[in-house]
Amino acid sequence: MGEGMEMVKASETGKEAETGMRAKTEKSELVCIRCPIGCMITVENNPDGTLHITGNTCNRGAEYAEKELTNPTRIVTSTVRIRNGKQSVVSVKTKEDIPKGKIMECMEAIKSVELEAPVHIGDVALADVAGTGVDMVVTKDVEMATA
Asked: Based on the domain organization, do 105 and 87 belong to the same domain?
C-alpha cells in the first residue's frame, strides 16, 4: 500500500446500541512506519466515533494510527528536468505532507515542470502543488553547465 504500510479492514459486530439495534465496529490493522520497530497496530473505530488503539509500543504509534485512519498524508518525492545544468534532473519533494488522495494529482502536475540552472536546495519548483497549499521544493544544488 506504500511506505511499508499494510492495512486490512474487517467489520465486526459491536455492542448492542441503546435502541436494541446492533452497531458495527470497524477494525483495522496496520503496521506503524514511524520508527524501525514496525508495531502491528489494531484500531477499532467504534460506532460513537471513538478509536480504540492497541499494539503500539509508544505514543508515536498511536498518533500515526489515528492520523492514518482519519487524515492520511504523505511527503511526495520526485525529480524534475533541468535546462543548462550539470545534471539533467534534480530531486524535489513536498515541503510538508499532502493529503494521500492528492498524490497522483501532484505527480501529474510535476511532470510538466522544467527548471533553469542554477537551482539551489529549498528553491520552489512548483508552488501550491495540486491545490494543497504546499510547495514542491528542490533538494539538491545543480550548477549551470560550463560550455
From this structure: yes
Does residue 85 fall inside a structural domain? Answer: yes
The whole-number pLDDT of residue 55 equals: 94
Letter string b/e over residues 120-137, b meaning 16 or more CB atoms within 10 A of that residue's CB: eeebebbeebbebebbbb
Q: What is the pTM of this model?
A: 0.70
Q: Distances from the Cα of 58 to the Cαs of 66, 68, 91, in angstroms?
A: 13, 16, 33
Among 71, 96, 126, give the residue marking a domain's end.
71
**Measuring CA to CA, which residue among 51, 55, 63 is closest to residue 38?**
55
Residue 99 preceded by cis peptide, ω within 30: no
Sign (positive or negative) of CA dihedral 30, 34, 39, 41: negative
Decide if 71 contacts 97 (C-beta within 8 A).
no
pLDDT 10s digits, 87-105: 999 999 999 999 999 999 9
Give dist(CA 113, CA 76) in Å, integer. Answer: 15
Using CA atoms, how far apart are residues 3 and 88, in angstroms rounded to an integer?
A: 27
| Domains in the chain, number | 2
